[in-house]
Structure formats: C-alpha cells, structure tokens
Specification:
Distance between the termini: 34 Å
Number of domains: 1
Order of helices and strands: EHEHEHEHHEHEHHEEH
Structural class: alpha/beta
CATH superfamily: NAD(P)-binding Rossmann-like Domain
C-alpha cells in the first residue's frame, strides 16, 4: 500500500483503529475519521509514532452537510483515493431522528456510506480504487419495507440494524454494477466486543466481550479487501470474513438495488 491513500470511517477505536494501524503498517497514508477531532488525532499520533503516515478528519456521519464538506476536503487534498472503507456503524437502542430528519440507524449505516462513495467517485476512479463497506451477517435477516423504510410505524433496534446492513450490501452491489473503473465489495468481518454493543444490556455486553473475536482479528479481512492483490479485480462480492458468499437475495436483484439507489438519492438530493 505504499504511496496509496485510504479514507477510513470509524478509525478511532475497536475494529477501525486496528484497520488504520494495519493499513498504515502496509505503507498506506490513512485519512482517519472520527466524530471528534481529538479522537481521530489519537490514532493518527499512534500511526505516526510507529513510523506511518496519517491525517485526522472529523465529521458527523449523521449530517448530510458535514459528509459533503468532508468529501470536498478529501478531494481537495487527494485527487487520487485508492480505498474508501465505510467501517463506522451503529446499533441504536431507540428511534432517533437526525438534524436532516432521517432515522439515525439509516442515516449512519446507509446514507453516510452512500454519500461518501458518490461524492468521492472522481478520486476513486482516478486511482482505480476500492470501496469496502462493512456489512454484517445480520443482513441475511433483513427485510425491506419499501413503504416504511425508516421505521416510522414502529421501531425495533435489531430490525432497523438488519435492514440498514441489507441496504448497505444492496447499494454496494449497485455501485459495483454501475462503475467499472472501481471495485466495490461488502463483508461481514466477524463479531467483536466493540462500542457497537454499548446500547445492549450489561450481561450481553459481558458475554460479547468475553466470547467474540478480537478487533484485530475482525480488521484482517477488511484490510485484505482494501489491499490484497488476489481480490483486486473482485467487485460486487459479499464476504464472510475471508470467503466470498452469496448475499441476501435482494442484493442479487439488480432492479431492487437500483430502486433502493433511487430512493436514497432522492432522500439526500
């Protein structure tokens, strides 16, 4: 990855921190995102102390304006972007609405990755870059209610999370079908006891942290999709850690993927 630039969301802790350190160790210049600048600077300092190259970038994933401003900043600094890794995600315990009027799980897990990949298409194309979207095996259990896509008629956290990861996988495959100059893949990296589970009951958090994989282990398949030569030409794939698998049937339906893209585009136009 020497001489290559990567934008990574959710870089400050957990799996994201391990992805950032791993890519920097391969020689990449890492644009490390966090919601607060001091969080991003902490991992940047860690990378630099190890001899790597990185810069901090802070913006809110639930703000359309901040997402677009961040993309403009990246484009101004880096006309070539070799990888965009949409790692950040949330599992929200209750229904919240963002400043833009979107349900928060949908905004962070779906709209934010989509905005970044669309706004950064030019530098990604210039570098024949890769988009890596961190999805989940939970997407297999997702259902798409086209008439109530943001759970306005009844919110259940697990169902909202599942739908968001299904949507992210669908939009990844739509991008792969639409843009041949780049690659786009999604994956389930494994389950780690990270801050994703902060809204869970204490006893579930305890067993999650005790029994699940380490953040470093979950970072490894993400790093591979962003850097390895053996997957350099793979696009539109869904990976369960290191192995490619068939995704949810809706993610294999081009018409459904295009329909979702039209909905998302109209939401943030």
């Amino acid at each position: 990855m020497k001489g290559k630039t990567v934008l990574l969301t959710g870089a400050a802790g957990g799996i994201g921190r391990c992805i950032a350190l791993g890519l920097a160790g391969l020689g990449a210049h890492v644009i490390a995102h966090a919601r607060r600048l001091e969080q991003a600077e902490a991992v940047v300092n860690e990378i630099r102390q190890a001899g790597g190259s990185a810069e901090a970038l802070a913006f809110a994933l639930d703000s359309v304006a901040e997402l677009r401003q961040a993309a403009q900043t990246v484009k101004a600094r880096h006309p070539r972007l070799h990888a965009l890794i949409n790692n950040a995600g949330i599992w929200n315990g209750q229904r919240e609405v963002t400043v833009d009027g979107f349900e928060k799980t949908w905004a962070v897990n779906v709209l934010a990755p989509w905005i970044l990949q669309e706004e950064l298409l030019d530098p990604l194309k210039a570098a024949a870059g890769r988009v890596v979207n961190v999805s989940s095996n939970e997407h297999y259990l997702g259902k798409m209610n086209w008439d109530d896509i943001q759970f306005e008629k009844g919110y259940r956290p697990r169902y909202a999370y599942r739908r968001s990861k299904l949507a992210l996988t669908m939009l990844t495959n739509e991008l792969a079908a639409r843009e041949s100059a780049i690659t786009a893949n999604s994956l389930h990296p494994g389950i780690s006891g990270t801050s994703l589970f902060r809204n869970f009951p204490r006893f579930i958090q305890f067993w999650t942290w005790l029994l699940m994989r380490s953040p470093r282990s979950c970072a490894a398949p993400v790093i591979r999709l962003a850097s390895a030569e053996d997957v350099a030409r793979v696009s539109g794939g869904f990976f369960r850690r290191f192995a490619q698998h068939q995704p949810h049937k809706l993610a294999r339906d081009p018409a459904a993927c295009r329909r979702l893209r039209e909905i998302v585009a109209s939401q943030v136009k």
